[in-house]
Specification:
Layout (H helix, E strand, L loop, with lengths): L4 H9 L5 E7 L7 E4 L3 E4 L7 H8 L6 E7 L2 H7 L6 E8 L7 H6 L4 E8 L2 E8 L9 H8 L4 E5 L2 E6 L4 E5 L3 H12 L3 E5 L2 H9 L6 E4 L4 H13 L4 E4 L3 H13 L8 E2 L11 H16 L3
Parallel strand pairs: 10-11, 10-12, 12-13, 13-14
Antiparallel strand pairs: 1-2, 1-5, 2-3, 4-5, 4-7, 6-7, 6-9, 8-9
Helix pairs in contact: 6-10, 7-8, 8-9
């Protein structure tokens, strides 16, 4: 849901209808889909496996949210990995039913607990708690939040969704080392993006939060320096720059011409010293350094 918070916030502020759909059973992720009039879709759940069902419901433009029960068909099972015949449960709730502060909080990657109160399958009320207000929640919600990880509970009268943001890793570059770093990040359960186009990388890097990591690489000094500058504009908790000491100096010189001189947040050459040589070993050294830095946040 964190991935769509910026767009949903814009919809709420402009009073554009948007419905938020997310899977509550079976589920252990934070992915969600926002549906807007005219068939607009922001985000995805299981690579779009359930987009059709969610859109069909959204097109009804019901005034309240619903807890939907969908029996997974073969097509949906193939894409999602959820066994055919599973009774999947989704919440679909209009965005304006949430406290409007929900979306700015999620943009800032704040852990939240969403309690959707039910009358059978109809959502009658939505409560949202964060770390500063969780003490006012019911005992079950507070206990689930205290575990410190994403989790869901379905009760007869409410559904509790506790959402903790997943670390985002943006790798700006390409090649075997980039692939190895991305693979290891995915193994950790991080939300990983490998981007080669400079125009796309800049926006992603600048949007990172203190929970996130950026790894910059590439032989072209201007391209990699622009990406490094974009990461410095954002709030990434870890910024690693691959390349030799000379490459680091070349980037520093290029950025200095752009009046960017404070590189104290940059780890370059990136990675802890384990005498790494292969792409896999380099990936281990970089990811280990990123983990160590992110754990300090």
């Amino acid at each position: 849901m964190y991935d769509i918070a910026l767009s949903v916030n814009a919809c709420v502020r402009s009073k554009t209808r948007a419905e938020i759909a997310w899977l509550v059973s079976p589920n252990n992720g934070v992915h969600a889909l926002a549906l807007t009039p005219g068939g607009g879709r922001i985000g995805k759940i299981f690579d779009g496996a359930f987009d059709g069902a969610m859109s069909d419901h959204s097109n009804r433009k019901l005034p309240t949210g619903r807890l939907l029960n969908i029996q997974v068909n073969e097509f949906e099972a193939t894409i999602s990995g959820i066994p055919t015949g599973t009774n999947a449960k989704f919440l679909v709730i209009p965005a304006d039913h949430f406290d409007p502060d929900t979306w700015p909080a999620m943009i800032d990657r704040v852990p939240v607990a969403i309690v959707a109160h039910l009358d059978q399958d109809e959502v009658t009320r939505v409560e949202v708690f964060d770390g500063s207000t969780i003490s006012t929640a019911d005992a079950e919600t507070a206990q689930l939040f205290a575990k410190g990880s994403t989790a869901y509970e379905i009760h007869p009268d409410r559904v509790i969704s506790v959402l903790f943001p997943v670390t985002r890793l943006v790798v700006a570059g390409q090649g075997p080392v980039a692939d190895a770093i991305a693979s290891l990040g995915q193994t950790l359960g991080w939300n990983v993006t490998v981007v080669m186009r400079n125009d796309l990388a800049i926006g992603l890097l600048a949007s990172l939060s203190p929970l996130d990591a950026a790894v910059i690489m590439g032989h072209e000094v201007e391209v990699s320096s622009r990406n490094l500058g974009a990461a410095l504009e954002g709030d990434a908790g870890y910024i690693g720059a691959l390349g030799s000491a000379q490459k680091q100096q070349d980037r520093a010189d290029w950025l200095a011409y752009q009046d960017v001189t404070d590189l104290s947040r940059v780890f370059g050459p990136a990675g802890i010293d384990i005498s790494a040589s292969s792409p896999a070993e380099i990936a281990v050294s970089v990811i280990a350094q990123a983990i160590a830095e992110l754990k300090k946040k």
